[in-house]
Amino acid sequence: MSGSAPSSLSASSAMFDVFVIGGGINGCGIARDAVGRGYSVFLAEMNDLASGTSSGSTKLIHGGLRYLEHYEFRLVREALMEREILWRNAPHIIWPMRFVLPLHKGLRPAWLVRLGLFIYDHIGGRKRLPKTRTLDMRSDPAGKPLKASYRRAFEYSDCWVNDARFVVLNARDAANRGADVRVRTRVISAEDENGTWKVRIQNLLTGETETVRARYLVNAAGPWVDHVISGVLGQNDVHNVRLVKGSHIVVGRKFDDPRAYFFQNADGRIIFAIPYEEDFTLIGTTDQDYDGDPKDVAISDSEVDYLCAAASEYFSEPVTRDDIVWTYSGVRPLFDDGASKAQEATRDYVLKSETARGGAPMVHVFGGKITTYRKLAESALEKIAGALGPKGQPWTHAGALPGGEFPFDGYDAQVEALMRDYSFLDRHHAARLVRLYGLCARDLLGEARSVDDLGRHFGVDLYEAELRYLAAHEWAVSGDDVLWRRTKRGLRLSQEEAAAVDTFMREISGMHNQAANAGGGHA
Protein backbone atom coordinates (compact mmCIF):
# COMPACT_ATOMS: atom_id res chain seq x y z
CA MET A 1 0.00 0.00 0.00
CA SER A 2 1.55 3.23 -1.12
CA GLY A 3 1.19 6.65 0.44
CA SER A 4 2.82 8.56 -2.36
CA ALA A 5 1.39 11.80 -3.71
CA PRO A 6 -1.04 11.95 -6.63
CA SER A 7 0.34 11.92 -10.16
CA SER A 8 1.62 15.20 -11.53
CA LEU A 9 -1.27 15.42 -13.98
CA SER A 10 -3.71 17.73 -12.20
CA ALA A 11 -7.40 16.90 -12.01
CA SER A 12 -8.29 20.15 -13.79
CA SER A 13 -6.28 19.16 -16.89
CA ALA A 14 -7.73 15.64 -17.07
CA MET A 15 -10.97 14.36 -18.50
CA PHE A 16 -12.24 11.65 -16.18
CA ASP A 17 -14.64 9.00 -17.29
CA VAL A 18 -16.65 9.00 -14.05
CA PHE A 19 -17.14 11.62 -11.34
CA VAL A 20 -18.69 10.26 -8.13
CA ILE A 21 -20.34 12.53 -5.57
CA GLY A 22 -20.39 10.89 -2.14
CA GLY A 23 -17.93 8.91 -0.03
CA GLY A 24 -20.31 6.48 1.61
CA ILE A 25 -20.44 2.76 0.86
CA ASN A 26 -22.31 3.18 -2.43
CA GLY A 27 -20.10 5.95 -3.80
CA CYS A 28 -16.88 4.20 -2.80
CA GLY A 29 -18.16 0.87 -4.09
CA ILE A 30 -19.04 2.34 -7.48
CA ALA A 31 -15.68 4.14 -7.71
CA ARG A 32 -13.79 0.94 -6.86
CA ASP A 33 -15.69 -1.19 -9.37
CA ALA A 34 -15.36 1.41 -12.13
CA VAL A 35 -11.63 2.03 -11.77
CA GLY A 36 -11.01 -1.71 -11.54
CA ARG A 37 -12.63 -2.12 -14.97
CA GLY A 38 -10.42 0.54 -16.52
CA TYR A 39 -12.49 3.73 -16.23
CA SER A 40 -10.76 6.83 -14.85
CA VAL A 41 -12.53 7.95 -11.68
CA PHE A 42 -12.72 11.01 -9.45
CA LEU A 43 -14.59 10.85 -6.13
CA ALA A 44 -15.48 13.83 -3.93
CA GLU A 45 -16.78 13.56 -0.36
CA MET A 46 -17.72 16.77 1.45
CA ASN A 47 -16.92 15.40 4.92
CA ASP A 48 -15.05 12.28 6.01
CA LEU A 49 -15.52 8.92 4.36
CA ALA A 50 -18.43 7.05 5.98
CA SER A 51 -19.28 10.11 8.07
CA GLY A 52 -22.98 9.85 7.25
CA THR A 53 -25.32 6.90 6.88
CA SER A 54 -22.59 4.33 6.27
CA SER A 55 -21.18 4.55 9.80
CA GLY A 56 -24.62 4.78 11.41
CA SER A 57 -25.75 1.25 10.64
CA THR A 58 -26.38 -1.73 12.91
CA LYS A 59 -23.15 -3.10 11.40
CA LEU A 60 -24.56 -6.28 9.93
CA ILE A 61 -24.04 -8.12 6.66
CA HIS A 62 -27.46 -9.73 6.58
CA GLY A 63 -30.38 -10.66 4.39
CA GLY A 64 -32.87 -8.76 6.52
CA LEU A 65 -35.05 -11.44 8.06
CA ARG A 66 -37.88 -8.99 8.76
CA TYR A 67 -37.99 -7.87 5.11
CA LEU A 68 -39.61 -11.22 4.29
CA GLU A 69 -42.76 -9.92 6.01
CA HIS A 70 -42.91 -7.16 3.40
CA TYR A 71 -42.39 -9.67 0.54
CA GLU A 72 -38.98 -8.21 -0.38
CA PHE A 73 -37.85 -11.63 -1.62
CA ARG A 74 -35.50 -10.39 -4.36
CA LEU A 75 -33.71 -8.04 -1.96
CA VAL A 76 -33.40 -10.71 0.74
CA ARG A 77 -32.11 -13.32 -1.70
CA GLU A 78 -29.55 -10.94 -3.18
CA ALA A 79 -28.38 -9.86 0.27
CA LEU A 80 -28.10 -13.45 1.52
CA MET A 81 -26.02 -14.40 -1.52
CA GLU A 82 -23.68 -11.50 -0.76
CA ARG A 83 -22.92 -12.50 2.85
CA GLU A 84 -20.33 -15.16 2.09
CA ILE A 85 -18.87 -13.24 -0.88
CA LEU A 86 -18.17 -10.22 1.32
CA TRP A 87 -16.89 -12.37 4.19
CA ARG A 88 -14.43 -14.02 1.80
CA ASN A 89 -13.27 -10.64 0.44
CA ALA A 90 -12.80 -8.95 3.83
CA PRO A 91 -12.28 -11.59 6.54
CA HIS A 92 -10.57 -9.09 8.83
CA ILE A 93 -13.55 -6.74 9.15
CA ILE A 94 -16.39 -9.21 8.43
CA TRP A 95 -17.03 -12.38 10.37
CA PRO A 96 -19.91 -14.80 11.07
CA MET A 97 -22.22 -14.24 14.01
CA ARG A 98 -25.05 -16.36 15.38
CA PHE A 99 -28.30 -14.63 16.34
CA VAL A 100 -30.72 -15.84 19.01
CA LEU A 101 -34.40 -15.04 18.39
CA PRO A 102 -36.43 -15.72 21.57
CA LEU A 103 -40.08 -16.54 21.02
CA HIS A 104 -42.39 -13.99 22.64
CA LYS A 105 -45.94 -14.98 23.54
CA GLY A 106 -48.57 -12.93 21.77
CA LEU A 107 -46.26 -11.87 18.91
CA ARG A 108 -45.27 -13.82 15.79
CA PRO A 109 -46.15 -17.51 16.29
CA ALA A 110 -43.36 -20.10 16.36
CA TRP A 111 -44.45 -21.72 13.09
CA LEU A 112 -44.28 -18.40 11.24
CA VAL A 113 -40.83 -17.56 12.61
CA ARG A 114 -39.57 -21.04 11.75
CA LEU A 115 -40.99 -20.79 8.23
CA GLY A 116 -39.26 -17.44 7.74
CA LEU A 117 -35.97 -18.91 8.95
CA PHE A 118 -36.37 -21.94 6.67
CA ILE A 119 -36.70 -19.57 3.71
CA TYR A 120 -33.79 -17.51 5.05
CA ASP A 121 -31.61 -20.62 5.19
CA HIS A 122 -32.40 -21.83 1.70
CA ILE A 123 -32.93 -18.97 -0.79
CA GLY A 124 -29.49 -17.37 -0.54
CA GLY A 125 -26.98 -20.05 -1.46
CA ARG A 126 -25.67 -20.50 2.09
CA LYS A 127 -22.53 -22.68 2.02
CA ARG A 128 -20.26 -21.98 4.99
CA LEU A 129 -22.63 -20.42 7.50
CA PRO A 130 -24.41 -22.91 9.79
CA LYS A 131 -28.16 -23.35 9.48
CA THR A 132 -30.94 -22.52 11.95
CA ARG A 133 -31.43 -24.60 15.08
CA THR A 134 -33.88 -24.59 17.97
CA LEU A 135 -32.75 -23.70 21.50
CA ASP A 136 -34.13 -24.66 24.90
CA MET A 137 -33.49 -21.42 26.78
CA ARG A 138 -33.80 -23.19 30.14
CA SER A 139 -30.54 -25.03 29.49
CA ASP A 140 -28.76 -23.08 26.75
CA PRO A 141 -26.31 -20.37 27.95
CA ALA A 142 -28.13 -17.87 25.70
CA GLY A 143 -31.03 -17.98 28.14
CA LYS A 144 -28.96 -16.89 31.12
CA PRO A 145 -29.19 -13.07 30.71
CA LEU A 146 -32.88 -13.18 29.74
CA LYS A 147 -36.05 -13.34 31.80
CA ALA A 148 -37.14 -16.85 32.75
CA SER A 149 -40.36 -16.52 30.73
CA TYR A 150 -38.38 -16.95 27.49
CA ARG A 151 -38.13 -20.70 27.18
CA ARG A 152 -37.61 -21.31 23.49
CA ALA A 153 -35.63 -19.60 20.76
CA PHE A 154 -34.28 -20.07 17.27
CA GLU A 155 -30.62 -19.49 16.44
CA TYR A 156 -29.58 -18.50 12.91
CA SER A 157 -26.58 -17.08 11.04
CA ASP A 158 -25.65 -13.70 9.62
CA CYS A 159 -22.41 -11.68 9.59
CA TRP A 160 -20.98 -8.68 11.41
CA VAL A 161 -19.12 -5.85 9.65
CA ASN A 162 -17.03 -2.91 10.77
CA ASP A 163 -19.06 -0.54 8.58
CA ALA A 164 -16.87 2.58 8.59
CA ARG A 165 -13.73 0.56 7.85
CA PHE A 166 -15.60 -1.23 5.08
CA VAL A 167 -16.14 2.12 3.36
CA VAL A 168 -12.57 3.30 3.89
CA LEU A 169 -11.12 0.07 2.49
CA ASN A 170 -13.28 0.37 -0.64
CA ALA A 171 -11.95 3.91 -1.08
CA ARG A 172 -8.41 2.74 -0.38
CA ASP A 173 -8.66 0.02 -3.00
CA ALA A 174 -10.11 2.48 -5.51
CA ALA A 175 -7.20 4.86 -4.91
CA ASN A 176 -4.68 2.02 -5.13
CA ARG A 177 -6.10 1.20 -8.56
CA GLY A 178 -5.85 4.81 -9.79
CA ALA A 179 -8.93 6.70 -8.62
CA ASP A 180 -8.52 10.28 -7.38
CA VAL A 181 -10.30 10.27 -3.99
CA ARG A 182 -10.83 13.62 -2.27
CA VAL A 183 -12.33 14.06 1.18
CA ARG A 184 -13.42 17.37 2.73
CA THR A 185 -14.19 18.36 -0.85
CA ARG A 186 -17.55 19.93 -1.62
CA VAL A 187 -19.13 19.89 -5.06
CA ILE A 188 -20.26 23.45 -5.73
CA SER A 189 -21.85 22.94 -9.14
CA ALA A 190 -22.04 20.50 -12.03
CA GLU A 191 -22.83 21.83 -15.49
CA ASP A 192 -23.36 20.13 -18.82
CA GLU A 193 -20.88 21.61 -21.26
CA ASN A 194 -21.19 20.16 -24.76
CA GLY A 195 -22.16 16.73 -23.51
CA THR A 196 -19.62 16.42 -20.71
CA TRP A 197 -19.64 17.50 -17.09
CA LYS A 198 -17.85 20.56 -15.77
CA VAL A 199 -17.73 20.12 -11.99
CA ARG A 200 -16.57 22.85 -9.61
CA ILE A 201 -15.21 21.59 -6.30
CA GLN A 202 -13.85 23.25 -3.18
CA ASN A 203 -11.31 21.90 -0.71
CA LEU A 204 -12.95 22.69 2.62
CA LEU A 205 -9.62 22.54 4.48
CA THR A 206 -7.88 25.15 2.32
CA GLY A 207 -10.80 26.95 0.65
CA GLU A 208 -9.25 26.39 -2.78
CA THR A 209 -11.54 25.70 -5.73
CA GLU A 210 -10.92 23.61 -8.80
CA THR A 211 -12.76 22.51 -11.94
CA VAL A 212 -12.89 18.85 -12.88
CA ARG A 213 -14.25 17.49 -16.15
CA ALA A 214 -15.92 14.12 -16.56
CA ARG A 215 -17.96 12.17 -19.06
CA TYR A 216 -20.37 10.66 -16.53
CA LEU A 217 -21.75 11.84 -13.18
CA VAL A 218 -22.78 9.54 -10.31
CA ASN A 219 -24.88 11.13 -7.58
CA ALA A 220 -24.33 8.85 -4.57
CA ALA A 221 -24.72 11.54 -1.92
CA GLY A 222 -26.89 9.44 0.38
CA PRO A 223 -29.26 11.61 2.45
CA TRP A 224 -28.11 14.60 0.37
CA VAL A 225 -28.99 13.00 -3.00
CA ASP A 226 -31.99 15.30 -3.52
CA HIS A 227 -29.91 18.30 -2.42
CA VAL A 228 -27.38 17.51 -5.15
CA ILE A 229 -30.17 17.36 -7.72
CA SER A 230 -31.69 20.67 -6.62
CA GLY A 231 -28.64 22.60 -5.40
CA VAL A 232 -25.73 21.32 -7.49
CA LEU A 233 -27.60 20.48 -10.68
CA GLY A 234 -30.14 23.30 -10.35
CA GLN A 235 -33.33 21.27 -10.68
CA ASN A 236 -36.38 22.31 -8.64
CA ASP A 237 -39.19 20.58 -6.74
CA VAL A 238 -37.23 17.42 -6.06
CA HIS A 239 -38.56 14.76 -3.69
CA ASN A 240 -37.22 11.27 -4.33
CA VAL A 241 -36.12 10.09 -0.91
CA ARG A 242 -37.77 9.37 2.38
CA LEU A 243 -35.32 10.10 5.19
CA VAL A 244 -35.62 7.56 7.99
CA LYS A 245 -33.59 7.93 11.19
CA GLY A 246 -32.10 4.92 12.91
CA SER A 247 -30.52 5.36 16.35
CA HIS A 248 -28.46 3.05 18.54
CA ILE A 249 -27.23 2.99 22.12
CA VAL A 250 -24.05 1.37 23.39
CA VAL A 251 -24.06 0.12 26.98
CA GLY A 252 -21.68 -1.83 29.18
CA ARG A 253 -21.64 -5.52 28.32
CA LYS A 254 -24.98 -7.14 29.20
CA PHE A 255 -23.95 -10.75 28.53
CA ASP A 256 -20.84 -12.88 28.01
CA ASP A 257 -22.17 -15.04 25.18
CA PRO A 258 -20.60 -14.36 21.74
CA ARG A 259 -24.01 -14.63 20.11
CA ALA A 260 -26.26 -11.65 19.39
CA TYR A 261 -29.98 -11.32 20.13
CA PHE A 262 -32.88 -10.50 17.81
CA PHE A 263 -35.76 -9.10 19.87
CA GLN A 264 -39.35 -8.72 18.64
CA ASN A 265 -41.35 -5.79 19.97
CA ALA A 266 -45.09 -5.46 20.53
CA ASP A 267 -45.29 -2.63 17.94
CA GLY A 268 -44.13 -5.00 15.19
CA ARG A 269 -40.60 -3.61 15.07
CA ILE A 270 -37.43 -5.46 16.04
CA ILE A 271 -34.14 -4.53 17.70
CA PHE A 272 -30.78 -6.24 18.00
CA ALA A 273 -28.54 -6.59 21.07
CA ILE A 274 -25.04 -7.35 19.79
CA PRO A 275 -21.64 -7.96 21.45
CA TYR A 276 -19.61 -4.84 20.62
CA GLU A 277 -15.95 -3.93 20.96
CA GLU A 278 -15.41 -6.69 23.55
CA ASP A 279 -16.71 -4.86 26.63
CA PHE A 280 -19.95 -3.38 25.34
CA THR A 281 -23.38 -4.24 23.95
CA LEU A 282 -24.86 -2.44 20.93
CA ILE A 283 -28.65 -2.04 21.00
CA GLY A 284 -30.72 -0.78 18.07
CA THR A 285 -32.16 0.33 15.80
CA THR A 286 -35.13 2.66 15.72
CA ASP A 287 -37.12 3.61 12.61
CA GLN A 288 -38.50 7.15 12.48
CA ASP A 289 -39.21 9.52 9.64
CA TYR A 290 -36.77 12.42 9.70
CA ASP A 291 -37.29 15.89 8.26
CA GLY A 292 -34.23 17.74 9.59
CA ASP A 293 -30.79 18.34 8.12
CA PRO A 294 -28.95 14.98 7.97
CA LYS A 295 -25.82 16.56 9.43
CA ASP A 296 -27.72 17.36 12.63
CA VAL A 297 -29.10 13.87 13.22
CA ALA A 298 -28.95 12.72 16.85
CA ILE A 299 -30.81 10.32 19.08
CA SER A 300 -33.93 11.73 20.75
CA ASP A 301 -35.12 11.19 24.32
CA SER A 302 -38.04 9.14 23.01
CA GLU A 303 -35.68 6.87 21.07
CA VAL A 304 -33.52 6.34 24.16
CA ASP A 305 -36.63 5.43 26.14
CA TYR A 306 -37.83 3.12 23.38
CA LEU A 307 -34.55 1.18 23.12
CA CYS A 308 -34.16 0.89 26.89
CA ALA A 309 -37.74 -0.35 27.27
CA ALA A 310 -37.53 -2.78 24.34
CA ALA A 311 -34.30 -4.35 25.62
CA SER A 312 -35.59 -4.44 29.20
CA GLU A 313 -38.57 -6.47 28.01
CA TYR A 314 -36.11 -9.33 27.46
CA PHE A 315 -33.09 -8.87 29.74
CA SER A 316 -33.53 -9.88 33.36
CA GLU A 317 -31.35 -6.90 34.32
CA PRO A 318 -33.07 -3.78 32.88
CA VAL A 319 -31.28 -1.41 30.50
CA THR A 320 -31.34 2.15 31.84
CA ARG A 321 -30.10 5.54 30.74
CA ASP A 322 -27.27 5.26 33.27
CA ASP A 323 -25.91 2.25 31.36
CA ILE A 324 -25.39 4.22 28.15
CA VAL A 325 -21.78 5.07 27.23
CA TRP A 326 -22.35 6.22 23.64
CA THR A 327 -25.13 6.81 21.14
CA TYR A 328 -25.11 7.28 17.39
CA SER A 329 -27.71 7.94 14.71
CA GLY A 330 -27.86 7.69 10.95
CA VAL A 331 -30.30 8.76 8.26
CA ARG A 332 -31.26 6.22 5.63
CA PRO A 333 -32.09 7.79 2.26
CA LEU A 334 -34.82 5.33 1.30
CA PHE A 335 -36.53 5.64 -2.05
CA ASP A 336 -39.95 7.15 -1.37
CA ASP A 337 -42.32 4.39 -2.39
CA GLY A 338 -45.30 5.83 -0.50
CA ALA A 339 -45.18 3.28 2.34
CA SER A 340 -47.28 4.35 5.29
CA LYS A 341 -44.71 3.49 7.97
CA ALA A 342 -40.99 4.17 8.08
CA GLN A 343 -40.23 0.52 8.82
CA GLU A 344 -42.28 -0.55 5.78
CA ALA A 345 -40.46 1.65 3.23
CA THR A 346 -38.39 -0.43 0.85
CA ARG A 347 -34.70 -0.99 1.68
CA ASP A 348 -34.06 -1.92 -1.94
CA TYR A 349 -31.97 0.39 -4.10
CA VAL A 350 -33.20 2.38 -7.08
CA LEU A 351 -30.93 3.80 -9.78
CA LYS A 352 -32.33 6.57 -11.97
CA SER A 353 -30.51 7.49 -15.16
CA GLU A 354 -30.84 10.97 -16.63
CA THR A 355 -29.36 12.98 -19.45
CA ALA A 356 -28.72 16.69 -19.06
CA ARG A 357 -29.86 19.13 -21.72
CA GLY A 358 -26.58 18.97 -23.58
CA GLY A 359 -26.47 15.20 -23.47
CA ALA A 360 -24.19 14.61 -20.46
CA PRO A 361 -25.25 11.36 -18.73
CA MET A 362 -25.72 10.77 -15.01
CA VAL A 363 -27.25 8.36 -12.51
CA HIS A 364 -28.83 9.05 -9.12
CA VAL A 365 -28.54 6.41 -6.38
CA PHE A 366 -31.44 6.02 -3.96
CA GLY A 367 -31.67 3.66 -1.00
CA GLY A 368 -29.61 0.53 -0.69
CA LYS A 369 -27.91 -1.15 2.26
CA ILE A 370 -24.34 -2.06 3.10
CA THR A 371 -24.89 -5.75 2.35
CA THR A 372 -25.92 -5.13 -1.25
CA TYR A 373 -23.49 -2.30 -2.06
CA ARG A 374 -21.42 -4.49 -4.40
CA LYS A 375 -24.46 -5.52 -6.46
CA LEU A 376 -25.64 -1.90 -6.53
CA ALA A 377 -22.23 -0.91 -7.91
CA GLU A 378 -22.46 -3.57 -10.61
CA SER A 379 -25.89 -2.23 -11.60
CA ALA A 380 -24.47 1.30 -11.76
CA LEU A 381 -21.60 0.05 -13.94
CA GLU A 382 -24.11 -1.37 -16.40
CA LYS A 383 -25.52 2.13 -16.80
CA ILE A 384 -22.03 3.67 -17.07
CA ALA A 385 -21.04 1.10 -19.70
CA GLY A 386 -24.24 1.83 -21.62
CA ALA A 387 -23.35 5.52 -21.81
CA LEU A 388 -19.55 5.39 -22.20
CA GLY A 389 -19.02 1.99 -23.72
CA PRO A 390 -18.02 -1.17 -21.83
CA LYS A 391 -14.64 -1.65 -20.18
CA GLY A 392 -13.65 -4.77 -18.34
CA GLN A 393 -15.85 -7.40 -16.76
CA PRO A 394 -17.45 -7.59 -13.29
CA TRP A 395 -14.61 -8.45 -10.93
CA THR A 396 -15.42 -7.45 -7.35
CA HIS A 397 -17.00 -10.81 -6.43
CA ALA A 398 -13.46 -12.19 -6.16
CA GLY A 399 -11.61 -8.99 -5.27
CA ALA A 400 -10.22 -8.93 -1.73
CA LEU A 401 -10.25 -5.59 0.03
CA PRO A 402 -6.89 -4.23 1.28
CA GLY A 403 -5.59 -6.35 4.14
CA GLY A 404 -8.07 -9.15 3.48
CA GLU A 405 -5.87 -11.31 1.28
CA PHE A 406 -6.02 -14.35 3.56
CA PRO A 407 -8.45 -17.30 3.94
CA PHE A 408 -11.92 -16.53 5.28
CA ASP A 409 -11.17 -18.66 8.35
CA GLY A 410 -7.60 -17.43 8.78
CA TYR A 411 -8.02 -14.58 11.28
CA ASP A 412 -6.58 -16.44 14.29
CA ALA A 413 -3.58 -17.58 12.24
CA GLN A 414 -2.90 -13.98 11.22
CA VAL A 415 -2.95 -12.86 14.86
CA GLU A 416 -0.45 -15.58 15.78
CA ALA A 417 1.79 -14.64 12.84
CA LEU A 418 1.74 -10.95 13.77
CA MET A 419 2.65 -11.75 17.39
CA ARG A 420 5.48 -13.98 16.19
CA ASP A 421 6.93 -11.30 13.91
CA TYR A 422 6.31 -8.42 16.35
CA SER A 423 6.99 -10.12 19.66
CA PHE A 424 6.48 -6.92 21.68
CA LEU A 425 2.73 -6.93 20.89
CA ASP A 426 0.40 -8.43 23.47
CA ARG A 427 -2.42 -10.60 22.14
CA HIS A 428 -5.12 -7.97 22.64
CA HIS A 429 -3.19 -5.35 20.65
CA ALA A 430 -2.29 -7.79 17.87
CA ALA A 431 -5.88 -9.03 17.62
CA ARG A 432 -7.19 -5.47 17.32
CA LEU A 433 -4.68 -4.55 14.61
CA VAL A 434 -5.54 -7.63 12.53
CA ARG A 435 -9.27 -6.94 12.98
CA LEU A 436 -8.88 -3.39 11.69
CA TYR A 437 -6.09 -3.70 9.14
CA GLY A 438 -5.62 -7.38 8.30
CA LEU A 439 -2.33 -7.91 6.48
CA CYS A 440 -1.87 -4.12 6.32
CA ALA A 441 -1.11 -4.16 10.05
CA ARG A 442 2.44 -4.94 8.94
CA ASP A 443 2.56 -1.73 6.91
CA LEU A 444 1.41 0.15 10.01
CA LEU A 445 4.04 -1.46 12.28
CA GLY A 446 6.81 -1.24 9.71
CA GLU A 447 10.29 -1.80 11.15
CA ALA A 448 9.21 -1.43 14.78
CA ARG A 449 11.03 -3.77 17.16
CA SER A 450 9.65 -2.46 20.44
CA VAL A 451 6.68 -0.53 21.78
CA ASP A 452 8.92 2.54 21.96
CA ASP A 453 9.32 2.37 18.17
CA LEU A 454 5.57 3.03 17.82
CA GLY A 455 6.07 6.59 19.04
CA ARG A 456 3.94 8.67 21.34
CA HIS A 457 1.35 6.80 23.42
CA PHE A 458 -2.15 8.33 23.36
CA GLY A 459 -3.92 5.90 25.71
CA VAL A 460 -4.89 2.22 25.84
CA ASP A 461 -3.17 0.61 22.81
CA LEU A 462 -3.20 3.68 20.53
CA TYR A 463 0.19 4.95 19.39
CA GLU A 464 1.59 7.57 17.08
CA ALA A 465 2.45 5.01 14.40
CA GLU A 466 -1.21 4.14 13.99
CA LEU A 467 -2.28 7.79 13.79
CA ARG A 468 0.34 8.54 11.16
CA TYR A 469 -0.73 5.49 9.18
CA LEU A 470 -4.37 6.62 9.25
CA ALA A 471 -3.41 10.10 8.10
CA ALA A 472 -1.15 8.86 5.30
CA HIS A 473 -3.25 5.97 4.00
CA GLU A 474 -6.84 6.46 5.14
CA TRP A 475 -7.60 10.18 4.77
CA ALA A 476 -7.98 10.78 8.53
CA VAL A 477 -7.52 14.41 9.60
CA SER A 478 -9.29 14.71 12.97
CA GLY A 479 -9.80 12.97 16.27
CA ASP A 480 -13.32 11.90 15.31
CA ASP A 481 -12.02 10.31 12.10
CA VAL A 482 -9.69 8.14 14.16
CA LEU A 483 -11.60 7.53 17.39
CA TRP A 484 -15.20 7.11 16.21
CA ARG A 485 -14.93 5.84 12.64
CA ARG A 486 -11.64 4.03 11.99
CA THR A 487 -10.83 2.54 15.42
CA LYS A 488 -13.66 3.09 17.98
CA ARG A 489 -10.95 3.84 20.56
CA GLY A 490 -13.16 6.76 21.56
CA LEU A 491 -15.06 4.30 23.74
CA ARG A 492 -11.96 3.84 25.91
CA LEU A 493 -10.01 7.10 25.90
CA SER A 494 -10.56 9.89 28.41
CA GLN A 495 -11.63 13.35 27.22
CA GLU A 496 -8.07 14.59 27.69
CA GLU A 497 -6.62 11.70 25.69
CA ALA A 498 -9.19 12.17 22.92
CA ALA A 499 -8.37 15.89 22.75
CA ALA A 500 -4.68 15.05 22.41
CA VAL A 501 -5.45 12.72 19.49
CA ASP A 502 -7.48 15.44 17.78
CA THR A 503 -4.73 18.03 18.22
CA PHE A 504 -2.10 15.66 16.86
CA MET A 505 -4.19 14.70 13.84
CA ARG A 506 -4.89 18.31 12.95
CA GLU A 507 -1.18 19.10 13.21
CA ILE A 508 -0.14 16.37 10.78
CA SER A 509 -3.15 16.32 8.44
CA GLY A 510 -1.87 19.18 6.33
CA MET A 511 1.10 17.01 5.44
CA HIS A 512 -0.80 13.81 4.82
CA ASN A 513 -4.44 14.24 3.85
CA GLN A 514 -3.72 14.35 0.12
CA ALA A 515 -1.00 11.69 0.28
CA ALA A 516 -3.60 8.95 0.55
CA ASN A 517 -4.33 9.30 -3.16
CA ALA A 518 -1.64 6.87 -4.16
CA GLY A 519 -2.91 6.32 -7.68
CA GLY A 520 -3.94 9.85 -8.54
CA GLY A 521 -6.11 10.61 -11.53
CA HIS A 522 -5.44 9.96 -15.18
CA ALA A 523 -7.01 10.96 -18.43
From TrEMBL:
* Residues in FAD dependent oxidoreductase domain copies: 17-373
> Which InterPro entries does this UniProt record tie to the protein?
DAO_C, DAO_C_sf, FAD-dep_OxRdtase, FAD/NAD-bd_sf, G3P_DH_FAD-dep
Q: Name one GO cellular component term.
A: glycerol-3-phosphate dehydrogenase (FAD) complex
Required cofactors, per record? Answer: FAD
The signal peptide, as residue positions, is: none
Pfam families documented for this protein: DAO, DAO_C
Catalytic activity from the UniProt record:
a quinone + sn-glycerol 3-phosphate = dihydroxyacetone phosphate + a quinol
UniProt keywords, alphabetically: FAD, Flavoprotein, Oxidoreductase
Q: Which PROSITE patterns match?
A: FAD_G3PDH_1 (PS00977), FAD_G3PDH_2 (PS00978)
What's the Enzyme Commission number for this chain?
1.1.5.3
What processes in GO biological process is this protein linked to?
glycerol-3-phosphate catabolic process
Tell me its family.
Belongs to the FAD-dependent glycerol-3-phosphate dehydrogenase family.
Q: What is this protein called?
A: Glycerol-3-phosphate dehydrogenase
Question: Which organism does this record belong to?
Answer: Nitratireductor aquibiodomus
